[in-house]
Design a protein that fits this description.
By secondary structure, the protein is mostly helical. The chain has two domains: 45 residues, no CATH class; 79 residues, no CATH class. A two-stranded parallel ribbon has the order 1-2. The N terminus is likely disordered.
Length: 151
């Protein structure tokens, strides 16, 4: 039985969720009679929910960046949020326009976008982020209002 089939059949029992099924994820209940480690594992970061394919493409983008700029370069020098936001947007725009693979790096655009976002998170956590975002409470409020209007 394929992994997809196993998850879908488990879904019917309320144990797992498969993101392609369109069912909302709420929790990962422990099945009765499972190993005691399961109960502890359920309290940890649910890495099993992150698609491995995305991680692989992100790793290839990090490999490309390491060749160009050096591995973990964002930890040795501070980075501007605006630079990585713009880079992620460019990769997302090209992907949205129909181009999947970056013609220069030969890496998936979504892998590059994930790498940009990962760098932003890591730089913020390590204190290496220069937060030069163009913040706008008015824009956030407008987004909330427009979202409410679509309900």
């Amino acid at each position: 039985m394929s992994g997809h089939s196993v998850w879908c059949s488990s879904l019917a029992q309320g144990v797992f969720r498969d993101c392609t099924c369109g069912v909302s994820y709420t929790e990962r209940p422990a099945a009765e009679g499972t190993n005691p480690k399961d109960a502890i594992g359920l309290t940890k970061v649910p890495l099993d929910l992150v698609p491995d394919v995305g991680l692989l493409h992100e790793a290839m983008a990090f490999k490309d960046g390491a060749k160009k700029y050096g591995a973990y370069n964002w930890r040795t020098k501070k980075v501007k949020a605006s630079i990585y936001i713009a880079a992620a947007r460019r990769h997302l725009m090209r992907y949205a326009a129909g181009e999947e693979i970056d013609p220069i790096s030969k890496v998936h655009h979504l892998g590059h976008a994930r790498a940009c976002l990962g760098i932003l998170l890591d730089a913020a956590m390590t204190g290496n982020l220069v937060d030069d975002r163009q913040t706008s409470q008015n824009l956030i409020e407008l987004m909330d209002k427009l979202t409410e209007n679509t309900k």
